[in-house]
């Protein structure tokens, strides 16, 4: 028997899917690892295993995070009863955490650090630049206002390196705004130039090296200095 373990620290990720439409073959079973507060919302999903995990709250974000140390014993317990397991993260805030656990449990040939490109903005910029893809001017030197302006100009965008979505991102117009911005001590930050103009959102999905989905849309409310 095989087990697919779906992991998310926020219920809204589970809520985006109609799990009743999922068709598993007889030799596969489904398990959820969720936050303690989400247990009641996920109960009653007949035949599915439900495990809870403590959540670490991130300042400035509505979503929580799971730690490797908390997830590890839960996965170890589940793996004892199944021949094969898969770890599936549907929560972008814990993508790298789950990728490291896949490595640890020998479930993938993928380098976990490759997944950082999806969640670490600085590493993503560096990788894109190395492939001659244009990115905003950026710097990880974010302690001194003058140094940031020297690299990227003013106004500029200040953002947490590993925050999910757009949480914690600010447009900095002057040194007063920079000095008054509250930063989370556990976060690293990156600054990049402010680019005015039309803003587009692009999504791609690949399966086995083949493009299976693409979507491009223009934002109705792009960034503005006004």
Description:
The protein has about 230 residues and is of the alpha/beta class. It folds into two domains: about 1-115, 3-Layer(aba) Sandwich (Rossmann fold), CATH 3.40.50.20; about 120-195, Dna Ligase, domain 1 (2-Layer Sandwich), CATH 3.30.1490.20. It is built from eight helices and twelve strands. The chain has helices spanning about 10-15, 40, 70-80, 95-105, 110-115, 120-130, 145-150, 175-180; strands at about 1-5, 30-35, 50-55, 55, 65, 85-90, 140, 155-160, 170, 190-195, 200-205, 210-220. The strands form four sheets. It has a four-stranded parallel sheet with strand order 3-2-1-6. The chain has a four-stranded antiparallel sheet with strand order 7-10-8-9, sandwiched between helices. A two-stranded antiparallel ribbon has the order 4-5. The longest helix is centred in the first third of the chain and has 12 residues, at about 70-80. The mean pLDDT is about 85.
């Amino acid at each position: 028997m095989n087990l697919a373990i779906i992991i998310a620290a926020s219920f809204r990720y589970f809520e985006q899917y109609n799990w009743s439409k999922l068709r598993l073959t007889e030799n596969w079973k489904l398990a959820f690892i969720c936050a303690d507060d989400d247990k009641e919302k996920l109960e009653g999903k007949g035949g599915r295993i439900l495990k809870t995990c403590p959540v670490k709250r991130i300042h400035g974000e509505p979503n929580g995070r799971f730690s490797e140390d908390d997830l590890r014993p839960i996965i170890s317990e589940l793996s004892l009863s199944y021949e094969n397991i898969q770890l599936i993260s549907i929560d972008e805030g814990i993508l790298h955490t789950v990728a490291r656990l896949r490595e640890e449990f020998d479930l993938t040939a993928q380098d976990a650090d490759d997944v950082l490109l999806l969640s670490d903005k600085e590493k993503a910029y560096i990788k894109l630049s190395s492939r001659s893809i244009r990115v905003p001017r950026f710097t990880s030197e974010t302690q001194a206002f003058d140094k940031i302006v020297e690299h990227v100009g003013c106004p500029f965008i200040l953002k947490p390196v590993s925050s999910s979505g757009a949480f914690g991102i600010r447009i900095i117009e002057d040194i007063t705004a920079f000095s008054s911005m509250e930063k989370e001590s556990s976060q690293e930050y990156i600054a990049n130039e402010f680019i005015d103009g039309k803003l587009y959102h692009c999504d791609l999905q690949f399966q086995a090296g083949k493009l299976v989905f693409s979507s491009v849309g223009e934002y109705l409310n792009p960034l503005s200095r006004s």
